[in-house]
Each structure stands twice: as structure tokens, then as C-alpha cells.
Amino acid sequence: MPIIQDILGCVCIRCSKLLIDKESNKGTQRKGGQARWREVKNLCSNIGRCGQDTVDGCGARQPTRYTREGMLQIVAEWENLDAPSKERGPKTQQPLEVEYVLQLFRRITDEDVDFLGLNRYWCRPDWMICTVLPIPPPQVRPSVVQENNQRSEDDLTHKLFDIIKSDKILKQKIEANSDKKNIMEMTNVLQYHIATLVDNQIPGVAPSAQRSGRALKSIQQRLGSKEGRIRYSIQGKRVEFSARSVITPDPNLSIAEIGVPKKIAINLTKPEVVTKFNRDQLYRYVQNGSDKWPGAKTIVRKDGRMISLKHINTKEIELHLGDTVNRHLMDGDVILFNRQPTLHRMSMMGHRVKVLDYNTFRLNVMVTSPYNADFDGDEMNAHIPQSYEASTELEEIAAVPHQIITPRDGKPVIGVVQDTLVGSFRITRPEVKFSRREFMNLMMWNKRFGAPDFDGGSVLPKAEKDGKWTGQQVVSSLLPPINMSMKNKQKKNVIINDGQIVEGQLDKDIFSKASKGIVHVTYNDYGPESTVNLLDSLQNTMEQFLIYNGFSVGISDLVADEQTHKAMAEVIETRKKEIEEFLLKVHLDLFDNNTGKSNQEELESKIFGILNQTSESGKIGQDSLAEENRLIAMVKCGSKGNEINVAQMIACVGQQNVDGRRTPYGFTDRTLPHYKKYDDGAEARGFVESSFIRGLTPQEFYFHAMSGREGLIDTAVKTADTGYIQRQLVKAMEDLVVQNDGTVRDAKMNIVQYHYGEDGVNSTKIENQSLDYQKMTEQDILNTFSLAGKDEEL
Q1: CA-based nearest residue to 336, from 401, 393, 254
Q2: Can you give the pTM of this predicted structure?
Q3: Degrees (nearest 5) of the Cα angle 13, 17, 20?
Q4: What distance in Å separates the CA atoms of residue 659 and residue 663, rounded to the nearest whole number?
Q5: Which of 260, 705, 732, 765 is a good FRET partner for 574, with 20 to 30 A between their CA atoms?
Q6: How far is CA 506 from CA 206, 384, 446, in A?
Q7: Residues 6+ apart with CB under 8 A from 183
Q8: Could you count the other beta carbons within 10 Å of the beta carbon of residue 104?
């Protein structure tokens, strides 16, 4: 209705001519549909008479405005311009019949429709007025037979009954020459039923309801929303040939593999066309039938007939070339694995099947990062490709080896994690050595023996003088011949020459750093398969090392000596005294605030700064722990936790924040009933002095729960907000495609970018190089980059 009113304001109320001159407003035509419509609307709002801006107008005076009365009526209003300005009293009003508006709109020329920013072929103004109501077929509004054999009609059918009934009554009234008021009332009733058939949630209009009071579900409610026909049904993601189960870890699988329960492998099938090369093998599957793995469920003959092997004597079955056997899932088949929410490309990857017993999907721990999965009850989905093309795409594009580098920031998203990382950190300590027997047992897990770049001499190093092999030699045996030099998390040098670790201890940075780390260098220099072999070999070898060596974290790793406890308590006590002295100054009005902030803000800022210095106690606690401490080992190598976690467990949990500040007053001028009014001391405003190993007091526990609750709420809100933002971005950009000429274009072939990303570079193929020429002397540059021989004269 508002659009009909706006169009009426743009055309003459008598002759339907556009009120502005198209020739003198040619600049408007250069604008797009929406922008042009808005400009034409603004220009027409200043025209008071037809012909005021054109030479061939009819001269009719135009209404000042069009208003809506009730559901159906549009009223044209003219202000009394003859009276003096202050006395513009009574307005002239003229109700416009629907038929009159329809005739006006039908007389608008195609050229005027285009100039308005509308489309003569798709949305003429007269099409906005309904003259014929199509009745949807019964399939759209099926009736339901209830348990007591009574038929229950669909909401749309009820609404159509009301429309037909109202229409008949209106027709009778017109034929009986009833007065105009009765006819208008019945017309409004008919209009109401038709409007609520289309949309039963019109603002200002009472929704149509059943006798029970339940609002009827109109066409608009069936189409729109997340549960509507389009998003839920037409664009729905309910598919066949898929499985869902709980995931559990299995470090013996390759990162490119997925353990599939035998129950699922028997139920889901993969079509395979019978050829002379595979006929015997497929015949054996057919003989096994549908319940024995590896078997087959159905056969599809060349003429399209499907034969189920469930209740049939399989010995009578003959296979012909060209038949399709829907066989069980087998080891080596490629499937698509997915975890929701699917937020980026690496949330759906291709894995090779390994059929195993029991009921869960088995997944390598290293491949959980891109899925953001853990094993606390997460479920994941598997999709089985049903064509050779789909299988090839999964193998060559979506497979895990091809997804190791993320396009988001060009660094490995799959890397060494948890116990493999701890094992690598501990095995590369200089003092770790192995006998021949131990070394050879570890080498049993080395996949490099089958690698294309295998060279026996370089893979198996020679023993040290004492007849032992070092841990660094074990890891070197797993590495391809790469070269790298960088610092680890402890700022110590790590040098690898031709795949041999010369010095240094391996940690998270050494493995996973973009461009420089072992994973990225291996991927760039030797490709995806070598990277997968490295990660698999490393994981299996480190598992074996930890079985021999052991690594357990216990309460003993958190216990500091008495002297350390005293030192930590002194630091906390010193900071608490500082706060007391500071608060005393404030109470004695000796507080000097020249920052521009309010006294309260500056007070909080100073106290916050003093309390943050209590982290010194955490440093003291960490330094007191032995070098062999397992918690410290995990933090140093980057497998789990950080220094703050250790400090909170050993020394002091610290200040609890609510809304980015110290815990605010919750009762009358105090945080809890246990404290005096206006107490702004450390303890009374949420400072937790205790450590987790010592345990929290009831008050400290309460403050800690307050900030914990804020974290939970914040996480839930952020998830909803970011999800909606992502949906908006996806919907805005889903039609953008990189065309063959390298340009990025939308559905209408408008150019969005002349070159994808402005540079056309694939972010997963980028390698960063640091060129430290500024810090190097001329001789350093020559020593680093010059070639031996000819350049020696330089």
C-alpha cells in the first residue's frame, strides 16, 4: 500500500501522465532502479499541477498527499490554497475507488514505468492491484485425517472458504442494490480475508485465527523465515548417503584416514560399474550379500532395473559388463567428513575410509583443529560420493593433504599437537639417547622408508661414539631433507641442515610457524603427501617414545616449597598494603588527580594497575618449579596451557573482572554482605588471593563465579552475533565468481574486482621471506648470498 501511494504521488490523478519532464531530467535515467525511483519520488513531491514541469500536461491540480484509511481506502487530500496561510483550515478530501486507481495505473505508459525505476516487463504498477485470486491446488493445502476419522482442513483451505463466502455475500448485496455503507463494509471484510491469506502478520491488522485462538499460517509465513518453504525445504540440507556418529580419537590412523564403523560401512553404498577388470571382485561382493562385509546391497542393470540382494539367492545372480553394483564401503574409499558449524573450507574435508569395529567414527587427533572438534561427545557427518567425478574431486581437491594450509592467513591449520608435541620437545633434549634396539624399534614407525626421496644413508644416521643414538637423530630420521634456521619459543636457536637437526629443541613454533616451520617448509618443498607422511611418522614414533618414557601430570607438579610460598605471599601482601595506603590518601583528600578522568575512574585505574603487579608472584612460583616439571614442559613446548594457568594454580588466581572492571557493588554500597559499606579494598572488590591448589574462600569462589558466568554469556552472545554477520556476508557475496578472464563478477556480470584479491595470488601458495639487508654488512651479504667460484674474486 505505501508503494501504491508513492506511485500515485508521481503521476497525474486525472491523466496518469508522469508529473516531471523526462527530457529535462535525463541525468536521472543514468541511475539504477532504486536510486532512480527515490529521485523521481523527491522531484514529483514538489509538483502541484499537471503540466507545471511539462509542456503537455492536462492542468489538473494534484493532491497535497495521499493517506490510507482502514485496510482498503486511499484518500486524496487537497489543502485549501485560496485562504491566507494561517487560515488553511478545511482540507478537501476525495476517497479513491480501487477501480479508479487500477485504471490510472493501467494508463501509465511503458516509458514512464521505466523512467520511474520500475520494469515494464516484470513490475508494472497496475500489477500491484489484485483482480484475480488463484486458488492453490490441494497438494499445497492437504487435509489431514485424524485418529477418529475426522478430516482436518489446512489453514489455507479455511481462509479460502472465508474468501468465497464473503465474495458471495458481497455479490448478493450488490445485486440487491444495498446501500453503499453495507457494500463497503463487506468489501473491507473480503479485503481483510484476502490480505490475511497472503500475510497474517500485517502491522495494525488483527491476525485471522481459528476458533481455538491459534493464528492461521498464511502464505507469507510458509515462505519466509528459517523454517519456511525456501530455507527449510527448497534449500534444505537433508541428504541421502550420509552418516552421523560420535567421534573418538585413534592415533594409529593417518591424518588422511577416517575410521568408519562396520555397521555404517554395510548400510551405505558406493556405485561401481562392472568392467572386465573388476567383474570377479564385484562378483565376490555380490556373493557375500547385503549383510556380510565386504558385500553389496543392490545391483542396477543396464536397463535401469534395480535388484536387491537382501532376500535373494545370490548364487543365481550373473553380472554383465555395464551393470552397476552398489557395494559396501571399503578401505581406501574417499568420503567427505564434516563437523557443524561449517565455518570455513576446512570444516569439510575428504578422508580415506578405514573400516573398523565398534560404533564411533575414529579420527586422528592432529586433524581436529580445522574441524574445531574435540572428543567430549562431538558428533560428525560423513557423506559418501555417488559418482567417479565426485570421488575424484574429493581426492584431488578436498582431501586432507590438500587442506593443510589455510587460505585465511596462509599458515598450517593441521600441525603437531598435544602428546606428539610434548614427545618431540622431550626427545630432542641433548641428554636423551637410545640403544640400537630402542632406536630400531622407533624406526619401525617411520613412513619415510617408502618415500620417493628415500635414501637409506640419509634416513638412518650413524650412532654416536658411545654406540647410542640421540633423540635429535630419531626426529631427523623422520624429516625430509629440509633446511631451516629459527628460534623456538624459549628464544633458543634451532638449526636443521638437509633434514638433520644440528642443534635446538623442537616446540610448537618450530613445527607450525607460517613459512618457516617444519610443516610449512615440508609442504612447500616436498608437497602434501610428504607432509602427511611426516606428521603420521612423527605421531606414531612419539607415541612409542612416550610409551617407553612416560609422561604424567599430577598434583606433585603444582606443589612449591615453603620458601616459595613465603615469597609469593610477601608480594601479594606488599601490593595489598599499597592499595590500603592509596585508599587512605583518597579518604584524607590527599589524592592528586590531574589526568582529566573522574576521581572514581582514576582510583579504579590505579588500583587495577597495582593488582596486576601481583602476577610477579606467579613468576616466582613458576621459577621455583624444577626443569623436569611436566606442567612447565607442556607450557614451554606449547602443547597445553600457558604461564597464567600455571600462576593461577600455584600462586594466586588474581583479580576477577566483571564488564572489564573490578567487581561492582551489588548490594547497598558493597559487593557482598560480608564486607563493610564503601570498602574498596582488594579483597572486597573481587581480588582472589588464593591459588587453585590451596582452594578458594566462599567469598572468592563467589567472585570467581561472577566473572565465569560473564564469560559463558559472552560466548553465547558472540556465537549468535558472529553467525548472523557471517550469514549476511555470505548472502551479499554468494553470486561472486572468478571468471575465466580473472575478473570477479556478480550474477549480472558486473565487475567487482578486475583481478581476484587485486593480485590474483592464492594465499595458500605464498611463502614469506625476511630480507634483513639493513642489518647486514656488505661482507655478510656476500658470504650469505654469493656463489662459490666466480664470485670469490669479489
Answers
A1: 393
A2: 0.82
A3: 105
A4: 8
A5: 705
A6: 71, 39, 18
A7: 170, 173, 174
A8: 20
Residue 356, phi then psi, degrees to nearest 5: -130, 165
Better-scored residue on pLDDT, 192 or 258: 258
Report the SS3 class of residue 302: coil
Q: Is the pLDDT of residue 653 over 90?
A: no
Q: What are phi and psi of 247, to 5 degrees?
A: -105, 145
Q: Distances from the Cα of 786 to the Cαs of 497, 716, 790, 792, 794, in angstroms?
A: 19, 57, 9, 8, 9
The residue behind cell 530455507 is: 231
Q: What is the pLDDT of residue 773?
A: 80
- CB atoms inside a 10 Å sphere around CB 515: 16
For the segment 492-525, what is each residue's pLDDT rounded down to a tens digit? 899 999 889 999 999 999 998 888 899 999 999 9
* Per-residue pLDDT, 255: 95
Distance (Å) of CA 187 to CA 3, 160, 334, 575: 22, 16, 64, 81
pLDDT of residue 615: 74
User: What single DSSP character describes residue 65?
Assistant: E
Which residue matches cell numbers 614427545?
423
pLDDT in tens, 556-596: 888 888 888 888 888 888 888 888 887 887 777 777 777 77
Per-residue burial over 710-748, b if 16 or more Cβ lie within 10 Å, else e, is eeeeeeeeeeeeeeeeeeeeeeeeeeeeeeeeebbbeee
Which residues, other chains included, contact 675 with Cβ-Cβ below 8 Å and sequence gap of 6+?
683, 684
Q: Phi and psi (nearest 5°) for 506?
A: -80, 140
What's the distance, CA 32 to chain centroid?
33
* Alpha carbons 84 and 561: distance in angstroms, whole number: 97
Distance CA 175, CA 34 (A): 45
> ∠ at Cα 417 (415, 423), nearest 5°?
120
| Portion of the chain with pLDDT greater than 90, in percent | 40
Contacts of 718 (CB under 8 A, 6+ apart): none
Per DSSP, the residues of 454-517 read --HHHHSPPP-TTS-EEHHHHHHHHS-S--EEEE-TTS-EEEEETTEEEE----HHHHHSTTTS
**pLDDT above 70 (res 385):** yes
Dihedral, 27, 28, 30, 34 alpha carbons, nearest 10:
160
What pLDDT, on a 0 to 100 scale, did the predictor assign at position 724? 93
CB-facing half-sphere around the CA of 625: CA atoms within 13 A: 24
Q: What residues have CB less than 8 Å from 651, skipping those under 6 apart? A: 568, 617, 618, 620, 621, 691
For the stretch 726-782, pLDDT in tens is 999 999 999 999 999 999 999 999 999 999 988 988 889 988 888 778 888 888 888
Q: Which residues of 500-512 are buried (b: 16+ CB within 10 A; e: fewer)?
A: bbeebbbbbbbbb
Query: Mean pLDDT throughout 702-711?
Result: 92
For residue range 321-341, list pLDDT tens digits in order: 999 999 999 999 999 999 999
SS (H, E, C) 2-15: HHHHHHHCCECCCC
Whether the CB-CB separation of 300 and 326 falls below 8 Å is answered with: yes
126: its cell numbers: 497496475
Q: Indicate the burial class of 687 (C-beta count within 10 angstroms; 0-12, 13-18, 19 or more).
A: buried
Mean of pLDDT over the chain: 87
Buried b / exposed e across 314-352, counting CB within 10 Å, b at 16+?
beebebeeebbbbbbbbeebbbbbbbeeeeeebbbbbbb
Asked if 272 and 366 count as a contact pair (C-beta separation under 8 A), the reply is: no
Q: How far apart are the C-alpha atoms of 534 and 522, rounded to whole Å? A: 8
Coil/strand/helix, residue 668: coil
